[in-house]
Amino acid sequence: xxxxKVTGDGITPGMTRFNSxxxxxxxxxxxxxxxxxxxxxxxxxxxxxxxxxxxxxxxVKGGGRASGHLANxxxxxxxxxxxxxxxxxxxxxxxxxxEVEGYPAKRKKEFITFAESPALRLWAGRHGFDVEKKxxxxxxxxxxxxxxxxxxxxxxAEIKLNLERAxxx
Length: 169
Known about the structure:
Structural class: alpha+beta
Distance between the termini: 30 Å
Number of helices: 6
Number of strands: 7
Order of helices and strands: EHHEEHEEHEHEH
């Protein structure tokens, strides 16, 4: 999960609170920045045969990632902390997301049940595992497909420019 924080002191040294107009503009900026990162990360997790609508996978044409579960789980939230801080968070709570992102580098194998990850059940069925007899699979270190950090790196300049526009006093 990535956290983004905008504080009054970070915009204008000594500023201890945002006025209502600044708060409105910065919240709008934060919402747009979070949506931009969510969308970019989702696109990094998809293949050309996925169909997206309103940020959700709605169709798959053969092959591709198992179900779009990880891409669909990427979400964001915005929080106001005091009178001079607005925080945006983008991320996912899917158990296997850190491994897909490439963290931690030396993760051990762990058993993931099909109840925890219906997408894993679909993948296992497509790859010849007897999903009626198994309750899950041992999942271990494998290749990663980073999706959050590369998106942040790609969008950083655009986000910074938009923040500067939102914070003009």
